[in-house]
Fold these 2 entries.
Entry 1:
Amino acid sequence: MTDIAPEAAAVLAFILGLAFGSFLNVCIYRLPRGKSLLGRSRCPNCDQPVRPYFNVPVVGWMMIRGKCSECRNPISVRYAIVEALIGVLFAVCVLKYGVTLVAVKFAVFGFLIVGLVFTDYDLHLLPDAMTLPGFVIGLIFSFFVPVGGTGFLERRWGYWFEFLPFDYRAPGMSLLAAVLGAAVGAFFIWGVGEAYKRVRGIEGMGLGDVKLMAMVGAFLGVKLTVLTLVFGSVAGSLAGVAAMVTVFSKRVQRYSGQSARAWASAKLVLRHYEMPFGVFLGVMALVSQWYGDRMFAWYLALYQ
Ligand SMILES: [Zn+2]
């Protein structure tokens, strides 16, 4: 596979990605609802099986012009968008990393994250069926694709790896970095969730977010996981403020300017507002993975 032209490899990766995107749509719909992944795709409205030739990614959706061929109800353009997204993701991974295990690792990571972002957006659920296998897959990849930022581990604990009967140092360090990344991500979110519960008396962050960050940490290591947490928190807070302002200004209109009444009413709405925090964490995990190292370099250069 090494003598294949990069452009040709990217086109093949794109087509493979479309097929995986089509499978991901099935996962996004069925996993949070506890349904089996086996069985033919069906129209979400009339439950009729989708005809095989309409199952072709993106093209199929265009052929039926976004409408079920049986009941004529609209089928969301999102199915085609998810397929195209995964196609582009696979192609970009191959263009950046070539036909390598690194490309496979980040294609798998992106695939899982896109799936989780959409299930969290739809139903505020991050299914264990995605996060837990994702966590294990992340740990396994750490043996073959070194997780970054192992320098301080080498200095601190590298000594212990000298006792092993074979050269286990590099993969062992990488696994340790992945485990530490997972621990940092999971414990931070768990702690924030607990603090939130004590202050406001309601569940702010579920265990789904904790498991999501364990998976992110296993793939990205400590440094990029911390970056994900920082960016995710900032984005989540901004979205929270935006939601508050939107609800409040709508209430002000409804109560024709009586701001005290509007505020009381808005507070009621916001008390039950649950933010899909996994959406922000997931998107920021991808941003950190693709741009994090460049951002760190740029930030450090400011102080030189
Ligand atoms: Zn239908």
Entry 2:
Amino acid sequence: MFSEIQLPVNQQVFLPQLDQKEIQLFIKREDQIHQQISGNKYRKLKYNLREAKGNGYKRILTFGGAYSNHILATAVAGKISGFETIGIIRGNELGRDIYATLSQNPTLSKAAQYGMQFVFILREDYRKKMNTHFLKKMNSKFGSFFVIPEGGTNELAVKGCQEILTEEDKQFDYICCCVGTGGTMAGLIKSSKKHQNILGFSALKGNFLKDEIRKYAAHQNNWKLMMDYHFGGYGKYSDALITFINEFRKTTAIPLDPIYTGKMMFGIKDMLKKHLFPRGAKILAVHTGGLQGIVGFNQRLKNKGSNLRIEI
Ligand SMILES: Cc1ncc(COP(=O)(O)O)c(C=O)c1O
């Protein structure tokens, strides 16, 4: 797994809003580091899988929604690294006809191709998924396993995310990232320099996020959560967001996903329009991947009768 990684490039982006104030914007193409274990997923899994291997585990158990980037990345990384993988998936209705589910869901069907076994659970039970009773039940069904939390975030994931920024990146005044569970942002904060501002664009409403981030990055205050660009919550979108993603790709050749990176770039562009970055600022936006989700997202648009699609 680890030898296949491509080092990400910082790709400069040219937008009309940048010229007036001599602002420079670069995107760190973490999405290109691996075909399936892209972006922050590789960073989060790296030390977790090492820990699991070091402790003699043969099986990884983790959690996610039906279109989760983390679920697919764990299935692939697990397969490559010689683990069995178990995905606890939110939504027991998906388990009623597994063949129908897999035929309609590209994320789960790919994860299944990489050998992941699924347990579909009720949404109410999903909230209690980390309790000992549930884990014991899974233990008697599958045998012992190494647990990686939902979204892949834990101390080891944060450690991996600390490797996203390099020495060369200290030239940037602003580091922007997407926020789901907060692990990626915590890693960026921990590895940032004092003069840098870390801006986390939340993909969900999440009032809990500040505390989550503080849990991992308690000693630094050079960060801010941007809560105005979640488009109504996790997985929510507007036509304007989809149009933006398609236009952004046309002008920069950089694909964005609608759940995370599209919202972040929409936010950055909006902040540029509102002159919220100072003259001469150097901004680095981290592209955390998530592109696998576009096919499933387009299917959901089609099922809703929308004519919009994210161009692939
Ligand atoms: C593509 C992508 N970007 C960003 C994030 C947010 O990362 P975090 O959960 O560490 O905040 C996720 C979710 O893990 C993701 O899948």
